[in-house]
Every structure is written in structure tokens, then in C-alpha cells.
Amino acid sequence: MADAEKARTIALVNxxxxxxxxxxxxxxxxxxLFETQQFIMGEPVGRLERELAxxxxxxxxxxxxxxxxxxxxxxxxxxxxxxxxxLTTPYTFFATAGAIDRAGARPVxxxxxxxxxxxxxxxxxxxxxxxxxxxxxxxxHLFGACAPFERLREACAARxxxxxxxxxxxxxxxxxxxxxxxxxxxxxxxxxxxKNLGAYGEAGMVTTNDAGLAGxxxxxxxxxxxxxxxxxxxxxxxRMDTMQALVxxxxxxxxxxxxxxxRGNAALYRELLAGAPVRLPAAEGEGDRHVFHHxxxxxxxxxxxREYLLAHGVxxxxxxxxxxxxxxxxxxxxxxxxxxxxxxxxxGASLAIPVGPWLERDEVAAVxxxxxxxxxxxxxx
Length: 381
Description:
Elements: H1 3-7, H2 15-36, H3 43-56, E1 60-64, H4 67-77, E2 85-88, H5 95-102, E3 106-109, H6 121-130, E4 134-138, H7 150-159, E5 162-166, E6 174-175, E7 178-179, E8 186-190, E9 204-208, H8 211-220, E10 225-227, E11 230-231, H9 242-251, H10 255-272, E12 278-279, E13 295-299, H11 302-311, H12 341-349, E14 350-353, H13 361-380
Parallel strand pairs: 2-3, 2-4, 4-5, 5-8
Antiparallel strand pairs: 1-9, 6-7, 8-9, 10-11, 12-13, 13-14
């Protein structure tokens, strides 16, 4: 192998690549912002809400301070609080369950499916039937793919349970030709810098087709106030910075192109890793669109593979190595190791490899080659 390839560093994240597309125009807008001094909830925030509502196919979009706040605001707007239970998955980022606890409710976990990493719809429907205290369900569109929803939506409708989509990683994704955010009462998005559509700080959004919920969300993000100094409920301070709105407005026109580049890189991995002893992300069904926030493989000797890739300049990351039911802060829920075996297996075997739009085809090929090298070396040793 050439010395140049040995020395190459292939980044898991390269936000500088994205910035060059928007740098000049963004700087001009930031200069105007410094003149107007509308640093919080300036006019660009409303413009972003309108554009993202249209992009996501929703009637309303409510910008807020972070994806974590988006989940919390959605739960409170739905009337979820003390004494309620909320069903979700233990294999996701902490914010999903953290928002439930923050709202005063109790997280109830449901195992995930082996191939998709998504909540097991059959088991979730059974839990809805078994536990009358469940008042909301949060399926997570993990790693850029939408969770299947028909069975879950039917079960929620039959019980009058609120369905809230955690779409933090899935803006632009589709399932059965329906976009992420189109089948729940509300959908929550994160614009953390590393997301497919990322800000330059914390930012989030909730979408909904319900004008009443949208009004509640707008009030709650402003300390529970619609009129200055008049507070209907105890809300929070979760207003979006105008700078973050400007960054997102400048990036949004590139989102489709960047998502397609991710999908192209993922397709190349499927081709190049077809014979490797790793399991690839589940294939898309008809009408589905995976936007590959992460390209996650599951494999034997995961930790050794990670060390090998990092030593050879390939960025990679283990996402969610401890499932939520085994986190110390949730010990009081009474779960134990073995309660959700699929989530636990995935936590011990999954690895995200570079897939972002900044990657060139030869870099994808180099990552695949390194993975093949590792397993050939391991088998011969």
C-alpha cells in the first residue's frame, strides 16, 4: 500500500468542508446581524421556521434551543407530566429518555429490532395494551432511517396515546414514501453541528400539523408567555439564536445534495463490504430513504476493530455503548442487564464509520480496505 495512503487521515466529521459553501454569504449576513443586534429570535428565525415546515411537510415548525429541548417541549405541550409513563427505546442518545424524566414522567423501555435498530413495534403494541399509564410513545429514527410506524400508530390511536417522533437524526428521511415527521402528533429535530443539517451551536425544532400544539410550543419556549410578563404556564427559556438560524438557512439549500452524497457513500460501502464479516445497515424498503446520519456496522471484535481503524487514521465512533436501562441515573426504574438483549448486543457490537458528504469515493474505498485488512489479519493470527 502506498505511503500516502498509510499517512491519510479520514475524518468521521469534517464541518470545514461544509462551511466553504456558505462562508462568504454567511459572513455578510452576520455583519448585518451585528448591526441590528437582534441576536435572539430575530427575523431569520421565523423565516427558518417557514422554510423547514415546508421542507418537512408540516403546517407548523417551532424553533427552539436544542434537540433535547424539542423533546421536552413536545412532551409538556402534549400534557405529559408527573404520574405518566412514556414508552421509548433504550438504544438511543440519552436526550430521548432524559426529556421524559425532565417532564416529570417515567421512561418505559421497549427493545429494538436486530436489523434496523428501531423500536420493536409488536412488543411496543403489547406494552401499550399491558400498561394503561403509558400516555405517549417516542419512536427514534435512529442513524438517519425512519422507524416503521403503521402498527405503532394504530396502537397509539386505539388508546388515545400521543405519538412523538424523535427525528433528531433523520431530517430528509422517508419510510413508505412518508417523510420523517409526518406521522406523529409532533416531531423533534436537532441541529447540533454534526447533524446532516447542523448549526454552529445548539439548536432544535418541533414540527406539528396541530395549530393548538404549535401555540403551546411557542408559549412554552418563552417561559410560558405569549404576552410579555404574562405567564400562563411554567415554561423554559429555549429561544433560538438568530446566528444559528442564519447558518441553517444558508445550509438548507445544500441539504438534499449532501444527503445524496451520504447515500452514495453508503451504497459504495455496501458494494465493497459485501464479503466482509460485518453486518451492514438494513436495506431500504420500497419508498424508504435512509439519509445516513451515521453508517453503522455491527461486527465481531468491535473494540479491536475500532482501535485498528483509529491507529490507521480512520475516524470511527461507538454510539451508545451503555443502553439507557443500564445507566446509573435510571437505576431506580428497576431494569437489569438482560432485560433488553437486542439493545445490549448492539451496544457491544456496533461501530460508526465515516459516511459524510465530504468523503470522496477513494476515501470510502480506503475505509473498506482497512476493515478487510483487519479481519484478514485477525483470522490469520
